[in-house]
What does this fold into?
Amino acid sequence: MTTAREEVLGRIRTALGEHRPEVVVPRDYRTTDDRPAEQLLDVLVDRLEDYKASVLRCGPEQIGATVAAALDTGLGAGWDPGSVVVAPGVPTGWRPDGAREDDGRPAVELAAFAATLTGIAVAIGETGTLVLDGGPLSGRRAISLLPDCLVCVVEAGQVVGGVPEALPRLDPNAPLTMVSGPSATSDIELQRVEGVHGPRTLVVVLVA
It folds into this structure.
């Protein structure tokens, strides 16, 4: 028994025949960004805030305190550290005391957590996109999608200008999740609804 996918691909192969034309893909687009690093950070912040994300900037020695402030921003004062799930590769110094490391529990249980703390693989300034790659620092995809608040730590060296510059830094076989602001959609009347397909709140800790 063949699947619909196999049938469609078989028909395509038959239509193309044995002598398939060689397709040359033009690669003359810009692959690097010459803007200064500080300018790229400003572009990233501008895009993220335009998408209704919150951005807190800090130095490397202030990450832990700024993560706590980010959780205040996302959850309000008095949040419970036990309601925060952390990607397993997040450094100890970034973690709030009492936060729970992801232990591979069933995805349905993750929805009970109020917030998630992760790092990222790369950030794209021009599009305001954070890319999580499923590695230890980013965590598995479920932890970044199910809790209602997502806090991401972004280090300055992870920020690039555009998509062509970001892709070589990523494993094409990894389960990539690209986050551009809080999850949102609009209906036919253009009424914005947040939190439909992922976290309703995104807070970014930008370290530079």
Observations:
- The mean pLDDT is 93.
- The domain at 36-207 is CATH 3.40.50.10420 (Rossmann fold).
- The chain has one domain: 36-207.
